[in-house]
User: Fold this.
Amino acid sequence: MKIRIVCPIVGDWRVNESVEEANQFKAPDTDIDGVGLDKGPTSIESIYDGILATPYILDRVIEAERDGCDGVFVTCFGDPAVDGAREKVSIPVFGGFRPAALMASAICGRWSVVTILKEVVPLIRDLARKLGIENNIASVRDIDMPVLELDDKAKMQSRLVEQIEKAVMEDSAEAIVLGCTGMLGLGRTLKEVLAKQGKQVPIVEPTAAAIGFLESMIRSGISHSKLTYPFPREKERVF
Amino acid sequence: MKIRIVCPIVGDWRVNESVEEANQFKAPDTDIDGVGLDKGPTSIESIYDGILATPYILDRVIEAERDGCDGVFVTCFGDPAVDGAREKVSIPVFGGFRPAALMASAICGRWSVVTILKEVVPLIRDLARKLGIENNIASVRDIDMPVLELDDKAKMQSRLVEQIEKAVMEDSAEAIVLGCTGMLGLGRTLKEVLAKQGKQVPIVEPTAAAIGFLESMIRSGISHSKLTYPFPREKERVF
Amino acid sequence: MKIRIVCPIVGDWRVNESVEEANQFKAPDTDIDGVGLDKGPTSIESIYDGILATPYILDRVIEAERDGCDGVFVTCFGDPAVDGAREKVSIPVFGGFRPAALMASAICGRWSVVTILKEVVPLIRDLARKLGIENNIASVRDIDMPVLELDDKAKMQSRLVEQIEKAVMEDSAEAIVLGCTGMLGLGRTLKEVLAKQGKQVPIVEPTAAAIGFLESMIRSGISHSKLTYPFPREKERVF
Amino acid sequence: MKIRIVCPIVGDWRVNESVEEANQFKAPDTDIDGVGLDKGPTSIESIYDGILATPYILDRVIEAERDGCDGVFVTCFGDPAVDGAREKVSIPVFGGFRPAALMASAICGRWSVVTILKEVVPLIRDLARKLGIENNIASVRDIDMPVLELDDKAKMQSRLVEQIEKAVMEDSAEAIVLGCTGMLGLGRTLKEVLAKQGKQVPIVEPTAAAIGFLESMIRSGISHSKLTYPFPREKERVF
Amino acid sequence: MKIRIVCPIVGDWRVNESVEEANQFKAPDTDIDGVGLDKGPTSIESIYDGILATPYILDRVIEAERDGCDGVFVTCFGDPAVDGAREKVSIPVFGGFRPAALMASAICGRWSVVTILKEVVPLIRDLARKLGIENNIASVRDIDMPVLELDDKAKMQSRLVEQIEKAVMEDSAEAIVLGCTGMLGLGRTLKEVLAKQGKQVPIVEPTAAAIGFLESMIRSGISHSKLTYPFPREKERVF
Amino acid sequence: MKIRIVCPIVGDWRVNESVEEANQFKAPDTDIDGVGLDKGPTSIESIYDGILATPYILDRVIEAERDGCDGVFVTCFGDPAVDGAREKVSIPVFGGFRPAALMASAICGRWSVVTILKEVVPLIRDLARKLGIENNIASVRDIDMPVLELDDKAKMQSRLVEQIEKAVMEDSAEAIVLGCTGMLGLGRTLKEVLAKQGKQVPIVEPTAAAIGFLESMIRSGISHSKLTYPFPREKERVF
Assistant:
């Protein structure tokens, strides 16, 4: 089984990190490779950024199917280009939101998202409404750090711990979804830090969940519905 | 007051028709002009088409604000590029769905959409969920005609009458939203045809509703919330 | 176009203020006049007050249609008599809640109402449920001032600023609806005060929204659905 | 325990029938009497009719409390005047909708209403939304008979059987609520007729449910919340 | 009329207390007796406890029908075994949740539950979802006391007052449901204590509500729907 | 990785079939074994059957954890004993409903369940409500065949095709969930049969989905939340 990660930004460094992360969660017979974009934003923190990246993501997904990949993970929590890509290909395509939100709904009653910035909260609420699981969300919190600062892992971690505790204590969250696919390599560490403080709450990592959904769908021989995402009609398109 | 219509497809003919249609519903002090796209699809009937058009729509909306327009109507029922455009500009921006859906909710309990093709129904349901008014929808029906066949006005009209009657009789719709901004010049005719058959049901036309929302917001001095649609951060974007 | 404002209380002073307020938001070809009630309460702050006013509001709406008005605005946020009046006439009729709630839903994800008194909050929640947009509400707050004290504009303004800030900071409201049509002449001032403090949040004023909905519907030739609000049957009614 | 039935129409005959009906469902220590209106409509089949009756219903409810009654049943499925009356008195007040809808929700998953006329369906849907149980409703059907024709019991019964069967077979209703308090003396008969045809579905009669709720609340010493329905403030009201 | 209380734990003392409590709320022609379990947990504070008690509760309910009882109240707020028991018998069966939740929905807009322990909150939320009234819940709070400590009535009462006040002031609850059937003999006392502090909020006691629902249904001749809870098919079951 | 299938009925034959089925969907490093019950029903087609099986399922799940299994699949679509088992163990436990419902929600907008018998439909609707995804369900249909007749594979298949077509054509389902874990070995066949008729709709098989969820969770190191499913308190339990 061959899964392609599409890192929807320019710059190669994130591609490698994403593939490494994904490799920790994959089955032994799964091969994962990754590609980035030549053009597009350096991070996605708005609908606008997602729009800029979309045509290039689309190309990468179509290319992945042509390359014989069995599934594609567009590694961004905002699911940019995902629904359009599903129209163009037959192989399963996921961004970060859907798998994480559904996995969280599988293991508890109400869960919180902890994301990067207050300004992406409305976008995440919209995704939750579209998926039909809005009532399962206890809260959407943020750590007030843009993507390009997430390299400061110590700061990211301490802020995540702080917001996770608030989500559990103040919002009655029963599980946590990490709301940015750039929050890499953190699930286990967070678990340990929280455990030391006597707290136990599942941390759903979008990369892990996405790889799991893809593997499961590929083994089951199913993909997204072509009744929901039909192939676009033939017509003149001028470029 | 100056409103710009962005016709999100290539080809000039639709621009003129759209402006003419809009002029029938405008206030006397409103000036409406229109622009089309140089590149993009010739019609929008899928998420993919919307994606292809999006970067060019975005340019047109930004240009409209620079030209001193007070508001923009992206004349497509699927609201392509609308949320991203709202991030980039301060003037109000609407597609066809939001105003029509809210106007219909203002005048009845449950209403139906009659759109062009079965394949766009999931997309319309998603827009309804995002807007939070899904429970006000009695049904989403289609006339099984692609956009580029809507020139056959007689056929379009007879199919619309047929589906409107079904929506009222079988789905208990109390009002109808025309689910494509290409269904031009039809509100009054449909009303008369239905009235002759002893039926009275309000027909909400997206163009009329959009012009109304824009005029009302411009006169009130409000626009979309910058807490929902903040300006995208400065960052490197490679093109 | 001729719009009649029905001020659903006794006392003439509010009629003039309401018409003046409405005139600030109207199109050039719209004529707005106003009438008050001869009998009824001096303010509406309960379902009971609304009930007392209802028969007299009804008379005023029927009279407006007879006088050739094209639409009616019953200037109270609680929408008293509106649904019954819609049964009796063909011209569009709005109170303050529906247009403001729908306008707010058009420009953001989740919004808050700031109203006069804690005791009207359940009534407002009921209106939101009926309209099907309850999930778009972040909170309903109050300034703890009865209608007849709203003359103290300085106090009203400072309390509004306080509650608006709480709605934005604590409840994540992305827009604000002023929850009383007696909160007159405030939209611009509030905007400036908030802007000085570096805060930007759209303030939806019910009068502005109602005039906008009426103008839009009248120009489009539509009104409320007679399938939702049919003419009452002929029958004996004893008075 | 003393319960007063307020029959919200003019004409005495319905008062007696309603009291008789209620007496079949009451506890031995409950005394039930009834009053009608001197002024008002002869039947309630619209929001308008409810509005006309409302001031007179209000008087009757206030009078009931003054007379030492422990609870009031306003015998109409549309709950006219009920919320306003709850503000004015401390004793429990119910119309027909709330108790029947909640009783039905207690005994099955999804239930249907069978009411008199298509034109009251939107009104019933609004009541369901306000009560927060809209999703428990499988359908709202009607027998196409106005209140004043319900004297033709044979016709009413056969049409009820027909619609109940459709509700069960086509809409998957698991229980039926009779959607008019004028459908008197029918629960047992309908049950037998349906049983003969091998069908078993609970029939919730609004009068039985309302008496049950009142008795239960009176014995428990609780009433509607004064936080939801506070006493109206003292103020000038001109009549 | 004969109602059987099934106390779903081992130990007789609770049976007597429960019957005494119930007797305070019953009609004069209602006879209430009670039975406990020979085997099972000594209290129910988890899904697991409910599961352990379930087969024995089931036996008791079947026995009650055989003994000629007209209805059964399984006196636990978690409704253990109730849906399964409804399949096996024809007489009405209630636990504590459904009647209390529906009674609270009858008297206010939004209400809070105050229960024993944080760990049963998810279970109560699930019951609310199943019943379709989740949106009527303002909050679910707890007093942090296990069932077997509820004998300390002074402590229980002071903690209840504290949480009820928070529910009203912070969560805008308009009524309170006591979320454990072991909170016996408290409704009136709580009311007095709260009244002394100038607070008035209805306290819904599950035992009172359950007896009321049973009496009402028995007098009306209705029970739970056999379309929702059909008799289990004949088949081999090995024990 | 070691997954244990608990077949919640008596009789060994189903155990083997279930393990065989599961083996078709597993990763290469997953070992799956299975156990049945010594006591319990021979099939589960009611809440009552689920209750009878529950204590024995619980034992099997606890045993599985003791045996070092990494996860458990209780192979029944009604999720019997699952929530209670989650309280008792730390390893992930799934029945058939949750994984299938979430997988279907991942690949389309609205999906239908096709189950065995009309009488289990209310039970499935309850599970959907609890999971918070009720609005994603287009319909719940049945093939009118009890579990013990599913051996007639030809009949089962032709009835499934018939109901799947109705779900797609009449209810606008965009994907299908097989609503019984006894519908074994059918996904591919159904797909082919439907494809021959020019129809393409994803068929979600609960066994495939459950194995996928378990593998994904085990690899990610997460399990159900102990805030939702805490370990039951120590207390006296008499047996």
About this structure: The longest strand of chain F covers residues 2-10. The first helix of chain F runs from residue 13 to 23.
